[in-house]
């Protein structure tokens, strides 16, 4: 938990203040900063695939330590950035490192935690991350009050990530996995049944950018709600996830349970889209705000359910021979949202209004209907007869 808290506070400091830091301290335009952040997300595709395979070979704990140390060094270099090419080079490398930590962290949990407790552990860690991120955001808010202390944003993040790297070394070593059972390179992306589950999960994970991008833009451009409704909704969403994520993980510790939960999350997501569409026909500010808050809470229910279901399916489908690679490939269902979700979803709802919300809901319901049979088809022949998540040993460190 200490590792996750140190990492989340550090990431909260930087992610909450990075746009202000790059525009005021480095002198970049908002468009340049946005393009750099998008490029960093694209680097995550490669990182999740390649570093998952590396983790399987050298050990999750060892690779996680290396990545945290490299990240800490990278954050200390941000104050030296004074040109656009250097900014792009550094932020892409940092995006690669950051997204690469996911498969190693997930595989490490798979090694150290019993199968029946893995999803709950991921839920606890996500709760801790949200708490730490909120603390980091508060620190960043203080830092941006004065331009003279802007460099404290990346430097404080570097210190906290270094602490996380140190704490990783206190964890037990990974259990060794014989060389003979190692998988072929890129075996996860060659597993088309597994990839189909990842693709369907990407659709069910659209709540990520609906809450962060599409819904706020909808509030600002297509409703009569005051602008301060946006930060209010984001605070409510964070508080909801912190409060209910662990409770929502119950029942997602098996492949069948996780896939059924994914299906339910899709129904909730479609319902939330329908509620948001109602604001098209409301003109009273109080009524509009009430509908928006209701939609936000239903989106939040979707979020905690879909997150838990994704962890359960990822662990349930990851084979012994390449756990981190499969877990990293499953992470693409969220990374893809970071790359294409903001523009696609916001474009649909802003351009087409209620019909746009209806289109999203229809696509989500199709994915929800397909996710259970897809997960069962992707189940590996060596999965245990009882529907429990298989053990996920990782290469020795």
From TrEMBL:
The keyword Nucleus does not apply. Residues 1-176 form the Major facilitator superfamily (MFS) profile domain. InterPro entries: MFS, MFS_dom, MFS_trans_sf, MFS_Transporters. It comes from the Bacteria. Its main location: membrane. One of its GO terms (molecular function) is transmembrane transporter activity. SUPFAM superfamilies: MFS general substrate transporter. The chain crosses the membrane at residues 20-51, 63-81, 87-112, 124-146, 152-171, 192-219, 225-246, 267-299, 348-372. Keywords: Cell membrane, Membrane, Transmembrane, Transmembrane helix, Transport. Gene3D superfamilies: MFS general substrate transporter like domains. It holds the Pfam family MFS_1. It is found in: Cell membrane. This is MFS transporter. It comes from Pseudosporangium ferrugineum. The lineage of its organism: Bacteria, Bacillati, Actinomycetota, Actinomycetes, Micromonosporales.
């Amino acid at each position: 938990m200490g590792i996750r808290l140190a990492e989340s506070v550090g990431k909260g400091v930087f992610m909450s203040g990075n746009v202000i830091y790059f525009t005021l301290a480095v002198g970049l335009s908002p468009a340049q900063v946005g393009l750099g952040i998008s490029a960093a997300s694209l680097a995550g595709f490669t990182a999740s695939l390649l570093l998952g395979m590396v983790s399987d070979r050298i050990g999750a704990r060892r690779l996680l330590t290396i990545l945290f140390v490299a990240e800490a060094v990278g954050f200390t270099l941000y104050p030296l950035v004074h040109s656009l090419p250097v900014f792009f080079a550094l932020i892409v490398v940092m995006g690669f490192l950051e997204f690469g930590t996911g498969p190693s962290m997930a595989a490490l949990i798979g090694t150290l935690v019993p199968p029946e407790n893995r999803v709950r552990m991921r839920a606890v860690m996500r709760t801790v991350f949200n708490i730490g991120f909120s603390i980091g955001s508060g620190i960043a808010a203080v830092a941006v009050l004065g331009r003279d202390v802007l460099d404290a944003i990346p430097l404080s993040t570097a210190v906290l990530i270094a602490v996380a790297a140190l704490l990783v070394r206190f964890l037990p070593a990974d259990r060794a996995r014989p060389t003979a059972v190692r998988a072929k390179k890129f075996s996860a992306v060659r597993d088309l049944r597994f990839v189909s589950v990842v693709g369907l999960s990407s659709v069910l994970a659209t709540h990520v950018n609906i809450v962060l991008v599409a819904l706020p833009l909808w509030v600002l451009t297509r409703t009569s709600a005051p602008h301060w409704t946006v930060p209010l909704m984001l605070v409510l969403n964070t508080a909801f996830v912190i409060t209910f994520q662990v409770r929502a993980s119950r029942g997602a510790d098996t492949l069948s349970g996780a896939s059924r939960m994914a299906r339910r999350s899709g129904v909730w997501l479609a319902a939330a889209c329908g509620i948001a569409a109602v604001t098209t026909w409301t003109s009273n500010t109080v009524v509009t705000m009430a509908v928006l808050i209701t939609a936000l809470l239903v989106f939040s229910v979707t979020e905690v359910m879909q997150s838990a279901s994704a962890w359960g399916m990822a662990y349930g489908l990851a084979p012994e021979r390449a756990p981190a690679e499969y877990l990293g490939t499953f992470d693409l269902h969220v990374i893809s949202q970071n790359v294409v979700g903001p523009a696609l979803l916001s474009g649909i709802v802003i351009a087409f209004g209620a019909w746009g919300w209806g289109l999203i809901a229809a696509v989500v319901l199709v994915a929800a209907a397909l996710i259970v049979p897809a997960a069962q088809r992707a189940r590996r022949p060596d999965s245990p007869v009882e529907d429990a998540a298989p053990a996920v040993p990782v290469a020795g460190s």
